[in-house]
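Reviewer 2 asked us to include a model.

Predict the structure of this chain.
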Amino acid sequence: MNSTFRLYRRKKGGRYYLHDARTGKQQSLGTADKGQAERLLHAKKEAQLQPAVNLQIARAYLMASDPMINKRDWQHVMDHIITTKTGSNQIRWVQAAKDHAFKPILHLPLLQTFAEQLFKVLESGTVATNVYLRRIHNFAVDMNWLPWPIIPKKQWPKVTYKTKRAITLEEHQRIIEREKNTERRAYYQLAWHLGASQTDLANLHAEDVDWQDKIISFERAKVRWRGVQPPMVRFGTEVEQILMDLPHTGPLFPYLRSVRSGDRATEFKQRCAGLGIHGVSLHSYRYAWAERAKVCGYPERFAQQALGHNSKAVHRAYARKAKVIVPTLEEYEKVYRDGKVIPMDMQQATAAGSVQVVNKTD
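Predicted model (C-alpha cells):
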C-alpha cells in the first residue's frame, strides 16, 4: 500500500508541510527542520500503514504511566462516581447505573471502546441514558482514564425532554375529591397553593410555619448547600385551613417524608391513571403555579423567589406558555373613578410588573 502523504517546503517561512493526495488537504508540521519533518512524515506513514500495531504501541506507552489504564471498564467509572455522591444525589446515580442500555459496555475496557458502541447505547436508551452516559464519559476524560474523548462534545445527540404541561384546576379538584388519605390530600393541596418541589414540600416541618405573620419558609434541597436564603411565602385563608389539620409539631407529612421521591411520584401517577388524567406528574404543580402567577399579573421576581431563580417553570410561563388576556382600559378607568385603584409611578410599575389594587380609604 503506497502512502498518500508527500512532504514539501514552502519558500515563505521555510516551514515543512504534508500534502494528502487522497483528500488534497495540506497540513503544516510547524517546523523548518528537515530531519524533524521527515520523522513526522514517517510517523504519519506508519499510522496509515499499521493502525492496529500503533494502537498497541500507544497502549503500551499509556500503561507505562498508568498500569490500571488497560483494566478500567465503564462499571469501574460508574462505581467511582457513585462513591463521590451523597444523599439523594447518590440514590439517583445508583438508579441510573441500573439502566439496561448500559449493559453492553459495562465490562468493556475504556481503551477498547469506540464511538459506534456508545451511539448504540444511546439509541437503545432514553433521555436519561444520554444525560448520564455523557457525564460518565466526561468524568473518565477528566480523570485521564481516557486519553481523549471518544465522542467529541459537539457530536453528542442533543438532550430533548418531553414537553411537560401544567395540571389544570379541574384535574386537581378531581384528584382531591377522590383522595381518601388525609395526608396525601393535604400534600396535593399545598402543592397547588405553594408550587414547591415534591421533596421540599414533603420535608416541611410545623416549625417552618410562622402563624403570626402567616409565612411558610422552606429550604430548597437543590441549593441548600450553597447557603441560599430559603424562600418565604405568605399564605392565605385556604392554606391556613389546610395547615390547621396537619401536625403542629415535627414533620407536616411524616409518611410522605419517609418514602423515596420516586415512590411519591408513582403514587401520584397511579391516582391520575385511575382518573384518566395523563401527561402530568407532581412537577406539573410547579408549572401550574407559575402559569397561574403569570396570568394574574404576579411579578416575575416574586415567582422566581418562590420557585427558584433558575426554575424552568417560571421561565416557560413568563416567556411564552401562559396565556394572558389583557383587561380593557374602560374597566380599569371605571374602577379608578370608583376609588379602588391607585396608579403606581412609572418606575415603580416597571419594577413590580403589575398594578397595585387597594382601597383609597384604607
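The CA atoms of residues 224 and 230 lie 8 Å apart. The two ends are 95 Å apart (CA to CA). We have added this to the supplementary material.
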